[in-house]
Amino acid sequence: MVPGGAAGQIGERALAAERRTSGSARSRAARKAAAEATRAAEAQAEFAPAGRPSDVFGADLPLRTPGAPPGGPRRRDMFTLLVLHLISNSESGASYGNQLIERIEGITDGAVSMNPNTMYPLLRELEAGGLIAGRWEHPEKRSRRLYTVTARGHEEYGNLREGIEPFLDSIIKTISLIKQEIYKSG
Predict the structure, then answer these.
(1) At CA 37, angle to CA 81 and CA 122, rounded to 5?
(2) Is the pLDDT of residue 55 over 60?
(3) What values do phi and psi take at 134, rounded to 5?
(4) DSSP-H helix ranges across the chain
(5) Alpha-carbon distance values, 115 to 54, 76, 101, 104, 118 (Å)
(6) What is the Cα–Cα distance from 72 to 74, expressed in whole angstroms?
(7) End-to-end alpha-carbon separation of the chain, Å?
(8) Cβ atoms within 10 Å, residue 5
(9) Taking the CB of residue 124, how many other CB atoms lie within 10 A of it?
(10) Dist. CA 146–CA 136, nearest whole Å
(11) Domain segments of the chain: what residues?
């Protein structure tokens, strides 16, 4: 008897047919995933806020408010909103990077610690987008770069403030529900 004779050939054919079928299934799944990704991107295309696509609140995940139409602000806009808010409401009307980092840590009681490697690229991007204007505190030394919010930045701040509030409300509700579930009495 030769190993892998007729029985081996039948097994090989069945394996090849299975590979073709599972390959087709994978192709269908890939096409379906691509179509879903395209639909999600189109739903978000309507809202195009300025700012850097990074934050601790969920990166590119779309805001999911029950009953709201798809699209709208994205969770990634949280740091842009926070930076515009802090600069707008600073005593002098201007802030610098490390000051913003410290204020974010203070506001969140240390829960959110923003890295300078995140803050400074965000500030440069907001400045390039015309949302903030920067100037050197001592131009001859290039010491600290002070930022102020531009008219366009105030407009974006208002849009983000309005658009992100439902997301913040959903975080508060979700955390409260989780706490209630875990620590309910009885």
Answers:
(1) 25
(2) no
(3) -115, 145
(4) 6-44, 78-88, 97-107, 116-128, 151-183
(5) 12, 16, 8, 11, 5
(6) 7
(7) 72
(8) 9
(9) 15
(10) 6
(11) 1-45, 75-183
Q: Is 73 helix (H, G, I), strand (E, B) or coil?
A: coil
The arrangement of secondary structure in 75-183, i.e. its CATH architecture, is: Orthogonal Bundle (1.10)
Q: How far apart are CA 107 and CA 60, in angstroms?
A: 24
Model pTM score: 0.61
Instruction: Give kind and range of the element (H or E) at residue 146.
Output: strand 145-149
Looking at residue 129, the DSSP 8-state letter turns out to be: T
Whether pLDDT at 155 is above 80: yes
The token duo for 1 is 């008897």
From 9, 172, 166, select the one nearest 77 (Cα to Cα): 166
Tokens of 82: 């926070």
In whole angstroms, give the CA distance from residue 126 to residue 2: 73
Q: Is 112 left (phi over 0), alpha (psi -120 to 50) or beta?
A: beta
Least-confidence region, from 31-35, 101-105, 138-142:
31-35
Lowest mean pLDDT among 25-39, 111-125, 156-170: 25-39
| Cα distance between residue 55 and residue 83, in whole Å | 12
pLDDT digits (tens, 9 = 90+) for 87-122: 999 999 999 999 999 999 999 999 888 899 999 999
